[in-house]
Amino acid sequence: AGRALPTSLPEYTEEATRRMSEMAAAYFLGGAADEITLAENRRCFDRVGLVPRVLSGGTGGSTALRLLGRDLAHPVILAPVAYQRMAHPDGESGTAMAAAALDALMVLSCQASEPLEVPAKVGRTCRWMQIYMQPAREATLALARRAEAAGYEALVVTVDAPLNGVRNREMRAGFRLPDGISAVNLANLPNPPVPPLPDGASAVFDRFMARAPSWDDIRWLRGQTGLKLVLKGILHPDDAVRAVETGVDALIVSNHGGRVLDSAAPALVQLPQIAAAVGPDVPLLLDGGIRRGTDIVKALALGARAVLIGRPIVEALAVNGAQGVAHILRLLRDELEIAMALCGCRRLQDIHPGLLCDLQASPL
Ligand code: FNR
Q1: Is 295 annotated to bind ligand?
Q2: Which atom of ligand 1 is nearest to the CA of 112?
Q3: What is the pTM of this model?
Q4: Nearest CA owner, ligand 1 atom 1
Q5: Alpha carbon 15 to chain centroid distance?
Q6: Which residue among 23, 45, 259 has the greatest number of ligand 1 atoms within 8 angstroms of its CB, and so is best to mutate?
Q7: CA 104 to CA 98: how far, in whole Å?
Q8: Where does the FMN hydroxy acid dehydrogenase domain start and stop, copy by copy (predicted)?
Q9: ipTM field
């Protein structure tokens, strides 16, 4: 009490770090192994500079865009982040209400701590549902049908985490989910039981990868649902091309916030190659390290149509519940408008690579 609200997303990170238990911080804020990718996700934005443009006044400025047949007021999307009730009792419903108030599209995690119908009902912009392909196709289908019935318009299939990364910070903290928090939407799915692992077998290859999905499963899902299909976790241009050939509607270039393969490339570094490989007609979204309006301008300049934020959601929840989430969305949108105006951009389409420079470049 008495402390002023944070004025930026980095300040929310600091405040949330102070407030969270070691266990919650390890889960929400940590990354895989040495957290190299986690750090690089931020650093790669800080290495890119912007070159301002002057005397660009005039009417008609807007952050609006069209994405997969929907009009969005701005390009900031709430990424799927699991177990939000562990950050604050407002949980996914609180995030969904904040998202609706600030006109932000929200992606619900399939590991949400609330039934997927609830945030969809309280938040008109909670319209994309993230899923993992399940070991049994009928289990994947059960999730897809529930999402369709609840009014979701797209399935975001996360493909970069067939198994967990090496989460040393969680191990050190002895992380476990608190009582009363669980992935309620994944309970009772018709998946086969996990068979015992024979002596000498590898849990990675003989358990996780043996049940992990392939491109055939994506093609199959494409044929099963009329929802838009978005693949999340693409970093290689060849995978991006394959995804488009498989009938996917959009891609999220992402390393899962540095939580899976440590030393994985930052999305921003891979984005230009991916944009070149798939061409201008495939919407590319990007996440990992977006904390400032200027980060959004940089991502859009390099080929992203929109961006997602992950950790900032749970940091804002931890500091101030649903109001915190509304606040960070307002902050990012204001910062984006300021950055656009100072770069001479009236619309998102005006943002282009010519605005960028290498901040590390030597003048000599
Ligand atoms: C995630 N992310 C994630 N992604 C996904 O597809 N399904 C999920 O359930 C989760 N859960 C999750 C939990 C937590 C605590 C974090 C931090 C992240 C990844 C998320 O959608 C996104 O890709 C990254 O968080 C983006 O990076 P930033 O914005 O956190 O730097």
Answers
A1: no
A2: 9
A3: 0.98
A4: 81
A5: 22
A6: 259
A7: 8
A8: 1-361
A9: 1.00
